[in-house]
Specification:
The protein is an alpha+beta fold. The chain folds into three domains: about 5-70, Orthogonal Bundle (Arc Repressor Mutant, subunit A), CATH 1.10.10; about 80-130 and about 205-235, Alpha-Beta Plaits (2-Layer Sandwich), CATH 3.30.70.980; about 130-200, 2-Layer Sandwich (Alpha-Beta Plaits). Helix content is about 45%, strand content about 20%. It is built from eight helices and eight strands. A hairpin with a 5-residue loop joins strand 1 and strand 2 (about 95-100). Helix 2 runs antiparallel to helix 3 (about 45-55) and helix 2 runs parallel beside helix 4 (about 60-70). The longest helix is centred in the N-terminal third of the chain and has 16 residues, at about 20-35. The chain is globular, with a radius of gyration of 18 Å. The model has no long low-confidence stretch (mean pLDDT about 90).
């Protein structure tokens, strides 16, 4: 599976930041999901999914409501979903997912971020095949055996259930996100440290010295770009 605990630590750190940047990214994603169908999570599964993820990051209600109201009002802003793949120092690989209303701007910004920070853009498919699309959940209060029994009773197959760092972590197929989350809630899980759809690397690399400094700068620059929603990588941090 790769990068299990390191990945959870990263997601926990992002959640704890509660920054306006994270809220802005969710606002855009909620708007796009709401506009893709009915602006009602009960009839729009894409919207329901992003709202569940937003709760994990404590996104304020006014940001959620504003994004949905904008979609209800027939907002004329359209966004394209884009994926970029690239390489950093010493065998590091990155996947950059973006939502943008200006494809040329985003492509230029992402390319510049790679080029000025020790990286190189790759062609489509050059990196993604080394990652697995995965639904990830992390929470406290229930041991792995109890969780696995609950999931099996509801006929839900998962990739793995582990305990690490005081958390129980569940990895599942991405199309099982809603089913797994509901099963965990039925068990009694109220708060999730992580509830995300991710691209997890099949193997990871360790960087040190200047390579690590360069890589961390590259990640920071990419994540700060207005149009970038997610950055996934294969580096053990």
């Amino acid at each position: 599976m790769g990068r299990k605990w390191n990945n959870i630590k990263e997601k926990k750190a992002q959640k704890d930041k509660n920054t306006s940047r994270i809220y802005a990214k969710f606002g855009k994603e909620i708007y796009v999901a709401a506009k893709s169908g009915e602006p009602d999570p009960e009839s729009n599964q894409a919207l329901k999914l992003v709202l569940e993820r937003a709760k994990t990051y404590s996104v304020p209600n006014h940001i959620i409501d504003r994004a949905i109201d904008k979609a209800k009002g027939g907002g004329d802003e359209n966004f394209d979903s884009l994926r970029y793949e690239g390489f950093g120092p010493s065998g590091s690989m990155l996947i950059v997912d973006a939502l943008t209303n200006n494809v040329n701007r985003t492509a230029s910004d992402v390319r510049a971020a790679f080029g000025k920070n020790g990286g190189n853009m790759g062609v489509s498919g050059s990196v993604a095949y080394m990652f697995d699309h995965t639904a990830t959940f992390a929470f406290e209060g229930y041991d792995a055996d109890t969780v696995l029994e609950q999931l099996m009773e509801q006929d839900i197959d998962v990739r793995d259930v582990i305990e690490e760092g005081g958390l129980t972590i569940v990895y599942a197929e991405p199309d099982q996100f809603a089913s797994v989350q509901q099963a965990l809630r039925d068990l009694g899980v109220q708060d999730f440290e992580v509830a995300e759809l991710e691209m997890l690397p099949q193997s990871e690399v360790e960087l040190s010295g200047d390579d690590l400094v360069t890589f961390e700068k590259l990640i920071d620059v990419l994540e700060d770009l207005e149009d970038v929603q997610h950055v996934f990588h294969n580096v053990s941090l």
